[in-house]
Amino acid sequence: MSERVVVAGAVCHRGRLLAARRSAPEELAGRWELPGGKLEPGEEPEDALVRELREELGVVARPVERIPGRWTLKPGYVLEVWTVRLLSGDPLPLEDHDELRWLGPDEAYTVDWLDQDRPAVAEVVRRLREAAPTNL
Ligand SMILES: Nc1nc2c([nH]c(=O)n2[C@H]2C[C@H](O)[C@@H](COP(=O)(O)OP(=O)(O)OP(=O)(O)O)O2)c(=O)[nH]1
Questions:
Q1: CA of 136 to the centre of ligand 1 (A)
Q2: Can you tell me whether residue 95 is helix, strand or coil?
Q3: Pocket of ligand 1, candidates 73, 83, 115: which has the most ligand atoms within 8 Å of its Cβ, to mutate?
Q4: Which of 106, 87, 117 is nearest to 20 (CA)?
Q5: Using an 8 Å Cβ cutoff, are 128 and 15 in contact?
Q6: How far away, in angstroms, is 38 Cα from ligand 1 center?
Q7: pTM for the whole thing?
Q8: Which residues are in the Nudix hydrolase domain (predicted)?
Q9: Are 18 and 35 in contact (CB under 8 A)?
């Protein structure tokens, strides 16, 4: 059986990362993730990410760079993560989420991230810290 890819976006804006709280399924509801979803057959990952972020958050976004690594989710599914820039729109929890939060590097671990998201979140937080003018 081939793996199904879940693409997720580390949406970064003004030095902060967007976290989204899942509203379903029951076993994941209340946990925080990088918004995204499953690739449709024949779809390129970047296209899937643009589509998912439009559907879930109502924004136009552009994938910038893949975070190295892929992480196994439930059997048969792997997570790939891209950094993402917002082109237009303010993210809203339209689908799959019931709350959104912008987290600066020092707030990044104030939410309960899904386990599989943690390595990618750590890498993005490291990059946000490096990009910040000061770490005070
Ligand atoms: N979107 C997303 N899903 C994640 C992350 N981490 C993680 O374990 N998952 C899991 C949760 C889900 O079981 C699966 C993705 O499913 P999804 O429900 O977001 O996908 P989708 O929007 O395409 O929805 P559908 O096909 O089920 O309707 O991957 C993450 O950071 N983002």
A1: 35
A2: coil
A3: 73
A4: 117
A5: yes
A6: 6
A7: 0.93
A8: 2-127
A9: yes
CA–centroid distance, 9 to ligand 1, in Å, is 11
Protein residue with least CA distance to atom 24, ligand 1: 37
Q: How far apart are CA 21 and CA 99, in angstroms?
A: 5
Any residues with CB less than 8 A from the CB of 48 and at least 6 apart, and which?
A: 5, 7, 36, 37, 38, 39, 40
**54 alpha carbon to ligand 1 midpoint, in Å?**
15
pLDDT tens sequence across 55-107: 999 999 999 999 999 999 999 999 999 999 999 999 999 999 999 999 999 99
Ligand 1 proximity of 78 Cβ (cutoff 6 Å):
no
Distance from chain centroid for Cα 118: 11
For 22-61, what is each residue's pLDDT tens digit? 999 999 999 999 999 999 999 999 999 999 999 999 999 9
Please work out, in degrees rounded to the nearest 5, the angle formed at the alpha carbon of residue 97 by the alpha carbons of 95 and 99. 130
What does the alpha-carbon distance between residue 134 and residue 136 come to, in Å, rounded to a whole number?
6
